Amino acid sequence: xxxxxxxxxxxxxxxxxxxxxxxxxxxxxxxxxxxxxxxxxxxxxxxxxxxxxxxxxxxxxxxxxxxxxxxxxxxxxxxxxxxxxxxxxxxxxxxxxxxxxxxxxxxxxxxxxxxxxxxxx
Length: 121
What we know:
Number of helices: 3
Strand content: 35-45%
Number of strands: 4
Mean pLDDT: 94
Helix content: 25-40%
Radius of gyration: 16 Å
Oligomer: single chain
Shape: elongated
Distance between the termini: 22 Å
Order of helices and strands: EHEHHEE
Largest sheet: 4 strands, antiparallel
């Protein structure tokens, strides 16, 4: 018999934050877009209980909290989000975090820069 996997995601979470390598980025701030995917094996299909899944309200809180702590690198932010999810939801086997920095200050037209981190338990 096969396994059932369930994916719970938040896509396109828009946050204004103050991450950046350069001091002016941490003063002016910019918009970021965060995507989070979680996957877990499902053992109790059909039970209408939030404890049997990933509460995406908690995912949103983790993202919001970590995005409000200014850091030089969005890689650091992505790892912090991943670590919080990993510790909050022990049943989750796979986590993917993508952070896009909109309009990075590169001296030309760039829609966004991005970082992606993945975790497999």
